[in-house]
């Protein structure tokens, strides 16, 4: 429910009703909105809340307010177009003391931060890393701590704690395996004294043959907020023209690569949308064994043919 400045009430869930106390509490009148007032079943369930002096209705087809002159519900653009164009279901709305507004939409719960010009900017980051769905209520206590009550958990958010959502981090290659069994790289390099180093020495570039042409790269990233939400994009220079689409798998395999030099690269994107520093490993494929012998034979036959032609 939401109380208006004149002491009347709005109540909502599967419908919207207005309770008028202008003739006294014992003589209140109740008006339930219908299609003539702009209410449709597509709106259900409805959340009603007072933000500032304005009564707002969060519905499954966006944000609405009541236009008394037209006697009907109309879309409200107070939070921006995306919240009133019918594309964004709204489940919870809660105003804080500083004028910011917490809101739950289909993608999660975030903050509408009030700007100096009274517009709002939506910030989805503060509790994005928390696996919470089915938010029932959002409450700000006397210490300005915000409590988000959901089906799985109750989340405590302290706005006074600084957190850098843009903290840099690195991707890394855990291992490289050929033929599903032979590990040729285990995630670390060392210098001539055995001390760990971060770059790949020239002498540690694997040289692989025709009988090692099934290769799997395994990788990860040093970002630990809801780690399972990490996504990866890879590129094998020497084969791929573009980076791959983002994917959650931490492995990538290739088969039957032709002779040449390759650089495998991986980058990651964490729960906050930050893209990591790339990791890479270089390798080389040579045609060995029977394929190399056939090339040698072809070359020898070519030289023999040229010599014979000259003698003739």
Secondary structure layout:
Layout: E1 2-3, E2 9-12, E3 16-20, E4 29-32, E5 47-51, E6 54-59, E7 62-67, E8 72-75, E9 90-95, E10 101-105, E11 108-114, E12 120-123, E13 137-140, E14 146-149, E15 154-157, E16 171-178, E17 182-185, E18 189-190, E19 196-197, E20 207-208, E21 214-221, E22 231-237, E23 251-255, E24 260-269, E25 279-285, H1 289-311
Parallel strand pairs: 20-25
Antiparallel strand pairs: 1-2, 2-3, 3-4, 5-6, 6-7, 7-8, 9-10, 10-11, 11-12, 13-14, 14-15, 16-17, 16-21, 18-19, 21-23, 22-24, 24-25
Gyration radius, in Å: 32 Å
**Strand numbers in spatial order across the main sheet:** 1-2-3-4
Low-confidence stretches: 289-311
> Mean pLDDT score, rounded?
88
| Helix content bin | under 10%
Q: What is the CA–CA distance across the termini?
A: 105 Å
Structural class: mainly beta
Describe this structure in words.
With 312 residues, the protein is mainly beta. The chain has two domains: 2-157, Methylamine Dehydrogenase, Chain H (7 Propeller), CATH 2.130.10.10; 171-290, Immunoglobulin-like. It has one helix and 25 strands. It has one helix spanning 289-311, and strands at 2-3, 9-12, 16-20, 29-32, 47-51, 54-59, 62-67, 72-75, 90-95, 101-105, 108-114, 120-123, 137-140, 146-149, 154-157, 171-178, 182-185, 189-190, 196-197, 207-208, 214-221, 231-237, 251-255, 260-269, 279-285. The protein is elongated, with a radius of gyration of 32 Å.
């Amino acid at each position: 429910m939401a109380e208006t400045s004149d002491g009347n009430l709005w109540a909502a869930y599967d419908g919207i009703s207005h309770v008028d106390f202008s003739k006294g509490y014992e003589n209140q009148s109740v008006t339930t909105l219908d299609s003539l007032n702009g209410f449709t079943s597509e709106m259900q369930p409805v959340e009603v809340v007072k933000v500032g002096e304005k009564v707002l209705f969060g519905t499954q087809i966006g944000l609405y307010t009541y236009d008394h002159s037209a006697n009907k519900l109309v879309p409200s653009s107070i939070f921006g177009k995306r919240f009133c164009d019918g594309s964004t279901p709204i489940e919870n709305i809660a105003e804080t003391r500083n004028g910011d507004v917490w809101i739950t939409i289909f993608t999660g719960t975030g903050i509408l931060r009030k700007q100096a010009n009274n517009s709002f900017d939506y910030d989805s980051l503060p509790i994005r890393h928390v696996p919470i769905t089915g938010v029932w209520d959002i409450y700000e206590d006397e210490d300005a701590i915000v409590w988000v009550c959901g089906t799985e958990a109750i989340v405590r958010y302290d706005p006074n704690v600084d957190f850098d959502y843009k903290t840099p981090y690195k991707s890394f290659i855990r291992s490289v395996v050929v033929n599903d069994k032979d590990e040729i790289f285990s995630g670390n390099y060392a210098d001539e004294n055995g001390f760990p180093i971060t770059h790949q020495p020239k002498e540690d570039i694997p040289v692989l043959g025709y009988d090692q042409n099934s290769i799997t790269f395994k990788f990860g990233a040093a970002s630990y907020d809801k780690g399972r939400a990490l996504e990866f994009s890879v590129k094998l220079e020497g084969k791929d023209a573009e980076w791959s689409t983002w994917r959650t798998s931490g492995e990538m395999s290739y088969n039957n690569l032709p002779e040449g030099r390759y650089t495998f690269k991986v980058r990651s994107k964490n729960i906050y949308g930050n893209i990591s520093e790339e990791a890479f490993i270089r390798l080389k494929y040579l045609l060995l064994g029977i394929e190399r012998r056939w090339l040698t034979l072809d070359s020898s036959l070519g030289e023999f043919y040229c010599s014979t032609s000259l003698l003739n």
